[in-house]
Amino acid sequence: MSLEESASVQSLFLECSAATLLEHLARIETCLGKLTDDQIWARGHENENAVGNLALHLTGNVRQWILSGLGGAPDTRHRDAEFAAREGPAAAELAGNLRATVESAVEAIRHLNTEQLTRVHEIQKYKVSGVYAVLHVVEHFAQHTAQIIFGTKMLMAAIWASIAT
User: Fold this and answer.
1) If DSSP states are collapsed to H, E and C, what string results for 145-156?
2) Mean local confidence (pLDDT), 81-96
3) Which of 47, 29, 28, 13 is nearest to 141 (CA)?
4) Beta-strand relationship, 120-123 and 126-129
5) 123 phi and psi, to 5 degrees?
6) Bridge partners of 128?
7) Cα gap 19→22, rounded to integer Å
């Protein structure tokens, strides 16, 4: 939908939310494509998350908040396991799982109606509107995308520093 077309605030919000998720997904896929599997699961310190943890976390969050919380799919998330993992899927699998989840969520978001957006949903023990849930997911996804980009730059700089010495 172009901005010249007559559009409701609701349709603009939903399309902007969907497009933003896809934009950030592409950035994460680029990062995952630059890193080795060891780098994806590397932590600077024990209390830090690896890029792989963040990818697992985003997959779980989007699934829980959009597909389960708004879409009614069963909630099978194990949030603590997302952060506890010290190793896991390779880049291609992480990216594929995240893409499949985000694409399903984007489809669900684009088809939300006024009743779904204004109704109160209980997600992760929070009582929130559908609008809040969509906004939460987009904001949360953006924050962790920035962390993944930063982590990738740090890991890539470490490679170049080791080559130079």
Assistant:
1) HHHHHHHHHHHH
2) 93
3) 28
4) antiparallel
5) -130, 125
6) 121
7) 5
Count of CB atoms situated within 10 Å of the CB of 122: 9
Q: Is there a contact between 56 and 28 (Cβ–Cβ < 8 Å)? A: no
In this prediction, residues 73-102 reach a mean pLDDT of: 94
Question: φ and ψ at 42, to 5 degrees?
Answer: -80, 140
DSSP H helical segments within 35-90, as ranges? 37-40, 51-62, 79-84
Which value, in Å, is the radius of gyration of the alpha carbons in the chain? 17
Q: What angle do CA 116, 75, 91 make, to 5 degrees?
A: 110
The tokens for 57 are 């976390």
Helix (H) or strand (E) holding 129: strand 126-129
- Reported as a pLDDT band with limits 50, 70 and 90, residue 126 is very high
